[in-house]
Structure formats: structure tokens, C-alpha cells
Amino acid sequence: MSNKNIGSGVIGWIDYRLPIFSTLKHTLVDYPTPKNLNYWWNFGSLAGIFLLIQIITGIVLAMHYTPTVEGAFASIEHIMRDVNYGWLIRYIHMNGSSFFFIVVYIHIFRGLYYGSYKSPREVLWWLGLVILLLMMATAFMGYVLPWGQMSFWGATVITNLFSAVPVVGTAVVEWLWGGFAVDNALLNRFFALHYLFPFLIVGVVVLHIIALHTHGSNNPLGIDKKGPQDSIPFHPYYTIKDLFGLSFVLTIFAFVVFFAPDYLGHPDNYIPADPLKTPAHIVPEWYFLPFYAILRAVPDKLGGVIAMISAILILFVLPWLDTSKVRSATFRPIYQKLFWLFVVDVIVLTWIGGSPAEGKFILIGRIATIYYFAHFLILMPLVGVIETTKPLPNSISESVLKKPIKGGK
Amino acid sequence: MFIINKIIQIFFLLTTIVFFNLTNVNAKSNDSNVDKMHFSFDGIFGLIDKASARRGLQVYTEICSGCHSLKHVSYRNLSGIGFSSDQIISFASQYEVLADPDSEGEVTMRSALPSDRFISPYKNSNQAKYMNNGAIPPDLSLVVKARAGAASYFYSLLNGYKEEPENFDSSNGYYNEAYPGHIIAMPQPLYGEDVEYLDGTEATLEQEIMDLISFLTWTGQPELNERKSMGFRVFLFLIFMTTILFISYKKIWKRVKAGLI
User: Fold this and answer.
1) Which residues of A touch B257 (CB under 8 A)?
2) The whole model's pTM is what?
3) By mean pLDDT, which of A74-83, A264-273, A395-404 is the weakest?
4) What ipTM score was computed for the predicted complex, to two decimals?
5) Are residues A248 and A306 in the same domain?
6) Which residues of A140-151 are buried (b: 16+ CB within 10 A; e: fewer)?
7) Relative to the CA of A368, which of A100, A180, A308, B77 has its CA 20 to 30 Å away?
8) A300 and A238 share a domain?
9) Chain B residue whose CA is closest to A270
10) Is there a single domain that holds both residue A267 and residue A304?
11) Which of A97, A98, A116, A217 is labelled catalytic?
């Protein structure tokens, strides 16, 4: 990162002492990007924008929110009714978390399809998973803050999971609660941590971007750049493409925020928390449902918790479970089919997670859970060895000129 | 402009999906006895009928407020359903609230101001419980959006006091077809002709229920009308901006696609 072509004057003077402008130019303007990225590559920058939306709306909400069991619910209604455009800010924040997860999940599935986790991008992949874990913790704690029925009972169910830990379980749970029940102490610390974690995410995002720019973006062909003819500068080509994608997604987002703001939430969370009244079905937010299904698929508390945590941790070793040398699923006929089967499996798990744990749902949930782990532990190592891959193109620029890369496959 | 057509199609498709789900979510309920009804505030253009909500306020004031509080709503909020400030002042002044302690430390009462919240029928939850066989009548501010099935559920609930089945044990409560479990602590609140509407509308049971639902939908979502009209403008703007950005994107990328860069 040199300060060469950043010019003279004030900017040049500062940049000579603190290379902030040349760094920005390097990451947002000059960054050489493969020519052939399709629309699935839009979701990284989209995730960044949604993180920003969450932080900005969240800070405004925090100015009006009261983190006490007596005042929390009423302060949310105060925001919805008395604060100028408070309803808009809160609906953006509520649905923004859902959209953040949609965007990040698509970003992860894109990585799975095109082998973006493979050498030399393993650490980039890990950092992404760390962001996912932080997001999950943040979203869970955020959902507790309105102190409605689902907030309270969700917090009760999830914090009680730690009691599955042998010997020290109960002590750990009481330490988390700061008392002997889900109460004010928990609400207070969740508020503090819910405010802190997004900034930790920002930190990891910076590392994620540094790791990304070290070896550059992967691309739909999964082959390395051979020379300057394979890449174009980020600006204006990908800035305009990302802006178009952002505007498109914001349109859908606005539709939900303005016309169906409570669609993704649960009606029970508009009932104030009542420790004496358990809701008929305690369901987490939709983005946790696959993991909730895995938790409930195991007929043992500790086993269920281990399975649920493993479902994410297994992704950390994915670069070594995948034995194939070829990155992109486009050239891997068997893995390509398995990928879509895996997508279906996750959708099934989402559906099971939202259904009551009874009858046929239990069986389907168990089969889907076994398949989830089999995909990573058995199928991925095996397929990489037995599969005959299609011939890879010689270079990115060559294939761009032959035929435009269509989105998706 | 094939691609633009395609984008418009996708927009249309997504919009329809969300829209149908949106109307479906009202029918989604844990009980099959909930009929899907149509309300003025349904869909993306549907707004709350203010005249109906004002009649609903009358039903709430004369019937429901005997047991149910409305503690998140202030009298001043009634401007949202078309009350003038004079009307609000005189409406609020009918009620008494606790005043601040006077200079001698005595607690006194004063008449309510527009800035006060709707007064509650009970001093506290223990009294509410004591007066109602142990069941606290829920606060109605958010009740429509706090129930699966929302407005349709309330329509069915208030219409659901049908003849009880033969083996029904009435010692636990009243029979209601729409209530989950069918045993409800609330006796039938509305029969028709329960109020005499100030605007002369005939107070049939159907009319009273629809008016009450309009009012309680408004208390739960006082921003609804403003939200939808703002949403429509935002949506149009974003479609316009997306189109412009798409055209710019295609223009900027032309040279790359042609292999010149």
C-alpha cells in the first residue's frame, strides 16, 4: 500500500503519514476483480450494507430503549408510537436482521457451490464463519430485548441448553443469568452485549476483507487469474453492479418493511413476557430453525446441543473434508447435484424446526439431520475422489469472450 | 429491453408471493374455526377506515373498557382517527387520573389530559385477577397483532359464542368456537344493539364487531395508514432507481462484454 498515485495537497500530505486514502483506493477502487463474477457475488457487499443498516438503526433505537423487565416492553411501544418515525426505524431493524441472514446465507451457499473455502482461502472462510457465529449471538440477544413472550421463553430455552454441560452445567446457566431465573440481570447484560457484538463483527469483517484481498475473489469458474487480462478494477465495474444489486434487494426489503413488517416475526412477541405462562409452541426466529431442528432431532439434551454446535463447527474443517482439486461445482457433475440436495436438506430442516416436535416431523427431522452430517463427513470426501471432473477452461478472459457467464449455474 | 422485462417479471412475482402470504398469514391460526375475513386495511393499499374506528372507540368505551385496559394508547393519539383537539380534550376530561401529590403531600385526583394514557379499569393486576375469577383480561392495545390470525381471529372469536356442545363443562368458562381449546373466560361481550352509534349507523352485531376490529387494529398499528402510503412512494422510487442503476450497469459493462477491456 503505497502513497504513489494519491496526489499532492492535503490528501497527499495525510496519506504520506497515515496511508488511509491509498488503502481505501486500493480496496474500493483499484482492487483487481475477476471479469466473470455473476450476481451471486453481490451478496458479500450486500451483507456489509445490512450490517451498517443494523448498526445505524440500532444506535437510534438504543437511545429510546429501557433495558429493564418493567420498562422494556413499554419502551418498545414508546418507540413505535411516540418517537418520530420510530416505527420505521424499528421495523427496519427487525426485518433488517432477517435480511442480513438471508443475504449471508446466500453468500455462504455461494461459497459452498463455487468452492470459495478451498486453498488459499481457508482463513477467509473461517473469518466468515466467525462472523456468522457472532451474528447468531447478536440476533438471539436482540430478540430478547423487547421482553415479549417469545423473547422470554426463547431466552429461557436457549440459556438452559448450557445446563446440558456435565457437572458445571447449572453453575454455568446461573452465571449466564446473573441470578436464579431469566430476569433483569440477563436483560441488562444482553442489551450491553447486543450493543457490543456488532462492532466485533465490524472488526472481523475488516479482517475478512483483508484476507479476501490477499488472494483476490474466487470466481464462477474457480480457476486462478492468469494475468491482467482476466481482471478489471473494482470501480466502476463492480461498484455499479453492487449498487444495482443493492437497489434491487432494498426494493424487496422496503416492500416487507412497509407492507408486511410483522410477517417474519411471531405474534406472541407482542404479548409482554409472563414467566408463569408458557406459549403453546416456542419457536426461534426463522433463521435459527435449521439448527433448532438439529437440536431437537437428537433424543438427548447434551447430544442435541453437541449436534447443533457441530452443525456449524463442521464448516470450519470443510476445506479438508472436500478432497476435490476443482473449486467450482460447474465442473463437478456429481457434487453439483449433491449441492442442490444439500440445499433441499437445509430447507427441510427449516420447515421441521418450525413444526411441532411430534409424529412424522420427528422422523423427517432425524433423517434430514443425518443427511446434513453425511453430506460433509461422508459424501464430500468420497465424491472428491471418485468424481471425474469436466475439463477446466484455460483462462477467465477466454471463457468470458466465448460465452457470457449466466447467473446460477 | 428483454432483461428489463424479466426484472419487472421477477418484481411482480416476488410481490405477488409476499402479497399472497401476507393475506394468508391472517388465516394461519392454531384453530380451524377461524374464517378468513376481508377488512378495509387488507393488502398493500388497504387503510384503516377512520369512521369505523371512531365507532369502534364507542364500542370499546361503552362495553370493553369495563374490563380491558388500553394502556399504550394516549387520548391525544385519537387525532389519528380524526378527532379534533377540542374533541380530544373533552373526551379525556370525562376520566379521572391520579394527580401528583399536592403541596401538603396529599394524593388527589384530577381530570385526564390529552397527554394521559387511557385509564385502566382496575387498580392493578391483582384486582383484575380477583374480579375475574383469576383470569386477567388482556390489555387491548396490541391484541390484534399479538394473536395468530389477527383481525380474522377476532372476527371469529366475537362471533364464536355458539350453542355449547352437550358434554361441555361450563364451570371453567364459556364455550367459544374460535378460541383455542374452546373454553374462554370472557362471557359473550357483544350481541348487537349494545351501543347507540353517535353517527346513526345501525348497531348490528356484524357492524359492532367490524368497527371494534378497525379500532383495535388502529390501536395496535397507529402508523398503518402513514406506513402504507409512505411505503408506496418508497417502493416506486426504488423501482425507478433500480432501473436507472441497471441501465448504467449495462452501459458501463458494454466494453467488458465486448472484450475491449
Assistant:
1) 400, 404
2) 0.92
3) A395-404
4) 0.90
5) no
6) bbbbbbbbbbbb
7) A100
8) no
9) B146
10) no
11) A217
